[in-house]
Structures are given as structure tokens and as C-alpha cells.
Amino acid sequence: MTLPLTLAVCSNRPRQLRAALLRLDHVLGPDDRLLAVVDTTVDAATAHSLTQTTTRAALLFNRGTIGLSCSRNLVLKESLTRHVVFLDDDIVPTVAAIDDLRAELEAGAHVAGTRITADLQGRRAPWWLTSGQLHYLGSHHPARPASIWGGCFALDRDHARLLGVAFDDHLGRVGTSLASAEDTTFVRRLAALGATATVLDTTQVHHLIPAQRLRPGYLTRRAYWQGRSEVRRGTARGGLHKEWNRNRSGGRGVRSAALALLYTTAVLTGIGRELLDRAGRHS
Description:
Blueprint: E1 5-11, H1 14-25, E2 33-38, H2 44-51, E3 57-61, H3 68-78, E4 83-87, E5 91-92, H4 95-106, E6 111-119, E7 152-156, H5 157-163, H6 182-192, E8 197-208, H7 216-232, H8 236-248, H9 254-281
Helix pairs in contact: 7-8, 7-9, 8-9
């Protein structure tokens, strides 16, 4: 008997979620479960449509927007299997990728992730986007080592509970905000407490990138929220240095340097805004 998994997706985009459920239905093993958390208010017709998408999915409705971290914690509570694979609603997994994660968990890993490759869906990358900004699109730099990100990663739920580690609800997206870092913070806390973390650098899934996320306004806003998230998890100084290095990794030349400066300035602006808001709350 293979290790049973719960494939879980948390989404505040019902239309996108329906497509995700259909994709995930095709990669489920015979003993796997499919669990979705709908993190937004939906009408009865939409709820019915989602429940009819596949007979293999269990759906939880938040009746409002409580955020990605809270939704993921709900999955950890409600999962009927010990091992969970989290996938974003715009990730295209394969049977091979799920089986590779399954094998790592069977071998004793407490958390494991795959490489996430940006799929621009036939579009050319605009001039204001280099490989140094792919992390703002939830995708790994193709020439650098991957790390465990929330778009596609698996974990031993029981071990996380034993260590008392959950997703931080001060991090991660809530509604239209682009806050982040709930995934990497979760993994860091597990690893700091002795959990085994594995990156499957040669196993990849595709991340579908819509046209609106290729716009400069989205990318700079995402960088801005990265700065705010770094403050929230107490890594502002190191996070700024990390973002500069990431942005500079897009290549040599004037364009790459100028874009690195632009996006890192957006990160710094986010850091400043979060620090000001924090000071205001404590004054």
C-alpha cells in the first residue's frame, strides 16, 4: 500500500479553484484525498458548482476571507491523512511530482518541496521582468537551487503538530493583499526544531502566470509586500539583502541593475511602511 496523501488547495478565487480541482483529480492516487478550502464568500450556486466539480473532493467554506495561513491551518486540522501536499490553485502538478513527494515522505522527510517553473502561457517575458524577479511570481530561478515554497510542498502533519508549528496568520495573503512568507517561515521553524526538510530540485511543477501578473504595477506591489512581510517575521535587514541579491541574479548589464534597484526600492518602501504602521500602533 502506498502512502496516502491529502492534496490540499486553499483559494479565494472560485473560478480558478474549479480548474485546480479538475487538475488535481487526475493526479490522485487510489488512497489519496482531495481537500479544498474556499477562502471567500460564495453564493449557493457557486458553492454547488464547486462541490459538483469532482466526487473525490471535500470542500470547506470559510464564509468569508480569513487568509491563506488560517486556511492552511484549517487543512492541517481537518486532513484525514497524516501527510499533506499543499498546492496553489494555479499550479499544474504531475503524477510523477506527487509520487516523488510521496517517496520522500515515505523515506522519512518531514517536509519536502519541488521546483516551481514559471509558465507564461505562450507570452514573452516583458523587458521589466528578468529571472531575478521570478520569485515575485512564485517561481524559481531556473539557474539557481530551488527552495521549499508554498506553491507545491508536502509535510508530515503529525510531526508539525508534535513540534507545535503552525502557519503564522500575520503572514500570507489575506484578500487582495500580497503578503507572503507564511510558507518559508513555517519550514524554517520546522527545520530549527530538527525536522528533516528536502528539496526535490529536479522534480518540477508548472505555475500558470496570467497576463496581469506580468505588469510592472503587480510586480512592484508584490515586492512592496515582500518588504512588509519581512518586517512581520522579524527579518527586515536580512530580507532586504536577500531581495537585492535575488533581483541582481537576473543577469549582468544596465537593465538588470536598474530593475534590481527598482524592485529592491519597492521592498525597502514596504519595510518602511510596515515599521511606520507598527510604530503607530504602539504609540
